[in-house]
UniProtKB/TrEMBL annotation:
<keyword id="KW-0012">Acyltransferase</keyword>
<dbReference type="GO" id="GO:0071555">
    <property type="term" value="P:cell wall organization"/>
</dbReference>
<comment type="similarity">
    <text>Belongs to the FemABX family.</text>
</comment>
<keyword id="KW-0133">Cell shape</keyword>
<keyword id="KW-0961">Cell wall biogenesis/degradation</keyword>
<dbReference type="GO" id="GO:0008360">
    <property type="term" value="P:regulation of cell shape"/>
</dbReference>
<dbReference type="InterPro" id="IPR003447">
    <property type="entry name" value="FEMABX"/>
</dbReference>
<dbReference type="InterPro" id="IPR016181">
    <property type="entry name" value="Acyl_CoA_acyltransferase"/>
</dbReference>
<dbReference type="Pfam" id="PF02388">
    <property type="entry name" value="FemAB"/>
</dbReference>
<keyword id="KW-0808">Transferase</keyword>
<dbReference type="InterPro" id="IPR050644">
    <property type="entry name" value="PG_Glycine_Bridge_Synth"/>
</dbReference>
<dbReference type="GO" id="GO:0016755">
    <property type="term" value="F:aminoacyltransferase activity"/>
</dbReference>
<protein>
    <submittedName>
        <fullName>Peptidoglycan bridge formation protein FemAB</fullName>
    </submittedName>
</protein>
<keyword id="KW-0573">Peptidoglycan synthesis</keyword>
<dbReference type="GO" id="GO:0009252">
    <property type="term" value="P:peptidoglycan biosynthetic process"/>
</dbReference>
Length: 375
């Protein structure tokens, strides 16, 4: 086997990502500082002396045992169309084994299926459809299908039954393409025209009401966090600490001063919405969002999204990523409002291949899997 896997420096890791154009921010060297409770290392794949791929591996120790889950969130960073992917993955398994890993978990960020806004709206309107995967996608990528078959053939396993986000990084995401098929950047007018009537009306209303949107400083993360906790209480989720966002800011912006930005939407001096955006090369992500219970009628959330979309477009990004959605499209689905909000941007739902596990030590892996399910 000619492909090998070994540790590399953070500088080598980052240089490969920059040359490639983009990668998930979860696969940048900086992310290891955000996830300080995991042991981390940057790895490189080599064909002889040629670097063919990189990855950030996070190692989580089993309780009371010096055995680890080797996790590559939304990674590794590879050209998944290569004909020697099996050799790359074998090299990864061998490296993880040398690090006392009992299993490896990967999450290839290759789009397998796409659903257009028209298809999504039709699915929501159809009483007989409850999940997006029940609807024929507008596009299925052959490269991703081949990779899926290869992973199954090589003994990797995945759980495609999950309806939510519990398994790890979401399989289903929502993305707004910022370029035409020929690679040229879309204009602001074209992006606006792609949105539905409600979104355009809400953006217009926010302007008329005098809503302003600006980028904030690290010190203003506390203001974001205040209304983020308000959002968490309203929507019934457990919010992260202010320290988490400060660590994220410090780590990502130390790597690149434009990596993470804070947006603040204000009306008559009152903060009404706030968001964070992360950018790696040609890819920008809406990562966290918050809004107040008061003044929802001034549409601060629409205004702030529109500003982030324009800024990502001005930065030459190919994709504005609104991150995870669940695939439920039934009228009574608890997350239906999220996909309805996001589909208004004119973007598309995409399904990655999901997360895949390879058990190096099967008894330990099954015990760990059982432990996670009990939690």
């Amino acid at each position: 086997m000619s492909i090998t896997c070994r540790p590399i420096s953070a500088e080598q890791h980052l240089a490969f990502i920059e040359e490639r154009g983009s990668a998930s921010f979860l696969q940048t060297p900086a992310w290891s500082k955000v996830k300080a409770e995991w042991r981390a290392e940057s790895i490189g794949f080599f064909d002889g002396d040629v670097l063919t791929g990189v990855g950030l591996v996070l190692y989580r120790q089993l309780p009371k045992l010096k055995r680890y889950l080797a996790y590559l969130p939304e990674g590794p960073v590879l050209d998944w169309a290569r004909t020697d992917i099996d050799e790359h993955l074998s090299a990864l398994i061998a490296h993880a084994k040398s690090r006392k890993a009992f299993a490896v978990r990967i999450g290839p960020t290759i789009v397998h299926r796409r659903w257009s806004p028209v298809t999504i709206k039709a699915a929501i309107a159809d009483e007989n459809v409850t999940r997006l995967s029940e609807v024929t996608p507008d596009e299925t990528a052959n490269v991703a299908t081949r990779l899926r078959n290869e992973l199954l053939h090589e003994g990797w396993v995945t759980d495609e039954t999950g309806h939510g986000f519990a398994a790890g990084q979401p399989m289903f995401n929502f993305q707004l393409p910022l370029r035409h098929a020929d690679g040229t950047q879309k204009t602001e007018d074209e992006l606006l025209k792609g949105m539905n009537q409600l979104w355009r009306r809400n953006i217009k209303k926010a302007t008329k009401e005098g809503v302003t949107v600006r980028t904030g400083s690290r010190d203003e993360l506390a203001d974001f966090h205040r209304i983020y906790l308000e959002t968490a209480e309203r929507d019934g989720f457990t919010g992260r600490s202010l320290g988490y966002f400060e660590t994220m800011w410090d780590a990502l912006n130390a790597e690149n001063p434009q990596r993470m930005k804070l947006y603040l939407s204000e009306h008559d001096g009152d903060l009404v919405a706030a968001t964070t955006m992360v950018q790696v090369g040609e890819h920008a992500w809406y990562s966290y969002g918050a809004s107040t219970n008061a003044k929802r009628e001034v549409r601060g959330s629409n205004a702030i999204q529109w500003q982030m979309i324009r800024d990502a477009n001005d930065a030459g990004c190919a994709v504005y990523d609104l991150r995870g959605i669940t695939e439920g499209v039934g009228a009574d689905d608890p997350e239906i409002g999220l996909i309805q909000f996001k589909v208004g941007t004119g973007g598309e739902a995409v399904a990655y291949l999901g997360e895949w596990d390879y058990a190096i030590n099967k008894p330990l892996y099954f015990a760990f899997d059982l432990y996670l399910k009990k939690r």
